[in-house]
Amino acid sequence: GTTLGASAAEKGRYFGAAIAAHKLSDSTYVGILNREFNSVTPENEMKLDATEPQQGVFTFTNADRIVNHAIANGMAVRGHTLAWHSQQPGWMQNMSGTALRQAMLNHVTRVASYYRGKIHSWDVVNEAFADGSTGARRDSNLQRTGDDWIEAAFRAARAADPGAKLCYNDYNTDNWTHAKTQAVYNLVRDFKARGVPIDCVGLQSHFNPNSPYPSNYRTTLSSFAALGVDVQITELDIEGSGTTQANTYRSVVADCLAVARCTGITVWGIRDTDSWRASGTPLLFDGNGNKKPAYTATLEALNAG
Ligand code: G3I
After folding, report:
1. Residue 30 C-alpha to ligand 1 middle, in angstroms?
2. Digit-coded pLDDT (tens) for 59-101
3. Which residues contact 52 (CB under 8 A, 6 or more apart)?
4. Annotated catalytic residue: which of 36, 235, 239, 300?
5. How far apart are CA 261 and CA 174, in angstroms?
6. Residue 206 near residue 268 (C-beta atoms within 8 A)
7. pLDDT given at position 157
8. Using an 8 Å Cβ cutoff, are 248 and 293 in contact?
9. What is the pTM of this model?
10. What Rg, from alpha-carbon coordinates, does the chain have?
11. Where is 219: in which H helix or E strand?
12. CB contact at 8 A, 188 and 227
């Protein structure tokens, strides 16, 4: 293929980008989006603060702009995210106990129901494990409602949209030897053993000098896949430039293609200037929308073999 999306599709996979609704009026941005990508993830528009700004009051205007653009252009949509400790609306931030549990489950149900049939995969729960060497859950108001909050969220999501793949999504879960990776692995293994509905694991894969691309990345992908779930690379970006950056993109793509259940890759933005990393250059297109060496390496890797 001659584009990322078409090349990935030839390998039975998708290639997506995180996008922002307010950039859909930028013709350079939309030109690249429509040419190269066959999946999108709303970067912020489906988060809790965006979709339920006041309790029980749901707003989907900006998320709908992205979903409608995707449908009109034949792109899949990854939903991001239904339950998260961050970007909670103010009313939720200070809630606790049964009231918070019920509010969280109602949020999952209402948002997943609203988009039923339109979402390829949902990040049902995002970033629930702590960094560091403990493998513990991250402390949060949601966690303090009880360890079973994650499975409760997945059951509610399955009931609301039985056709969507339900993912657990996290960062720093790329290195197979890290405690956080093992903790997520044990969660998924436990869910599969007990019949808790889960279909996929999202590896965000924000690579930078503090959390570099690990040489055992392919082992991580294949180990999760062996549990009977799909693996998706959900928020890929790689700090750096030039040939070094390009070769890391090439390795990530090759690793995904080597694992049958690695079903797709999403980059977390289109141009370097769209990245959440204010001063970095971690993406495939420069600020003018020109293809970087990282783009060429990614395309070549998608077409290899
Ligand atoms: O919308 C407000 C705007 O009204 C206000 O004037 C402005 C002033 O700062 O802030 C705007 O909100 C910002 C929002 O992005 C939309 O642009 C927030 O401050 C800012 O914190 C927020 O950052 C997002 C971040 O998640 C928040 O946690 C990034 O765009 C987004 O790329 C990033 O994405 C996360 C994934 O969801 C989860 N994994 C990690 C990834 C990178 O941090």
Report:
1. 20
2. 999 999 999 999 999 999 999 999 999 999 999 999 999 999 9
3. 58, 59, 89, 92, 107, 110, 111
4. 235
5. 16
6. yes
7. 99
8. no
9. 0.98
10. 18
11. helix 217-225
12. yes
Which amino acid appears at position 42 of this protein? P
Residue 237 pLDDT: 98
Closest CA to 263 of 295, 207, 225, 212: 225
Q: In 10 A of CB 170, how many CB atoms? A: 25
123 lines ligand 1 (CB under 6 A): no
Q: Is 235 a catalytic residue?
A: yes
CB-CB neighbours of 23 under 10 Å: 16
Residue 305 has pLDDT above 90, yes or no: no
Task: Read off the pLDDT band of 278 (50, 70, 90).
Answer: confident
What span, in angstroms and rounded, lies between the C-alpha atoms of 16 and 29? Answer: 14
Cβ-defined contacts of 192-196 (< 8 Å, 24+): 192/227, 192/228, 192/229, 196/151, 196/154, 196/155
Residue pLDDT, tens place only, 26-63: 999 999 999 999 999 999 999 999 999 999 999 999 99
Which ipTM value was assigned to this complex?
0.94
Residue 87 Cβ inside 6 Å of ligand 1? The answer reads yes
pLDDT of residue 279: 87
Q: Give me the amino acid identity at 198.
A: I
Rounded CA separation 303/89 (Å):
43
Atom of ligand 1 nearest to the CA of 269: 32
Cβ–Cβ under 8 Å, residues 86 and 127: yes
Counting atoms of ligand 1 from 1, which one is nearest the CA of 268? 32
CB 19 within 8 A of CB 41: yes
Q: What angle do CA 263, 85, 137 make, to 5 degrees?
A: 80
Q: Which of 44, 122, 129, 170 to mutate to test the pocket of ligand 1 (most atoms within 8 A of CB)?
A: 44
